[in-house]
Amino acid sequence: MPDPRIKNEEQYRALLEKGYSKQKSARIANTPDAGVKGGKAKPYEQWTKKELSVQARNVGIAGRSKMKKNEIIEALRHN
User: Fold this and answer.
1) Would you give the end-to-end CA distance of the chain in angstroms?
2) Which residues contact 42 (CB under 8 A, 6 or more apart)?
3) pTM of this prediction?
4) pLDDT digits (tens, 9 = 90+) for 29-78
5) Quick count: other Cβ atoms within 10 Å of Cβ 44?
6) What is the rounded distance in angstroms from the CA atom of residue 16 to the CA atom of residue 29?
7) How far apart are CA 72 and CA 22, in angstroms?
8) Do 79 and 59 touch, CB atoms closer than 8 A?
9) Would you list the domain boundaries of the chain?
10) Which run of H or E residues covers position 35?
C-alpha cells in the first residue's frame, strides 16, 4: 500500500532497492521535482549561499545555518 507521505513512491522504492535508508529515500523522494530529469542545474559552486541553504533544507540537512558555503556544498554532495 502506498504511503501518502511519500510524493514519489516509485523513486522511493528504487532508492530502497539500491540500499538507501528509509529516511534518506523519503527525503529524496519528497524533494520538489523528485524524479524529474533534466540535467540543467548549474554546479553548486555557482549557487548563492541562500539557494544552497534552501536546497539543504529540502533534503533535511541539519545545522546548515551555521555552515559556510563550501560546507553546505559538501553536505549536499554527501547526503
Assistant:
1) 28
2) none
3) 0.54
4) 887 666 566 667 788 899 999 999 999 998 889 999 999 999 999 998 88
5) 16
6) 11
7) 23
8) yes
9) 1-37, 41-79
10) none
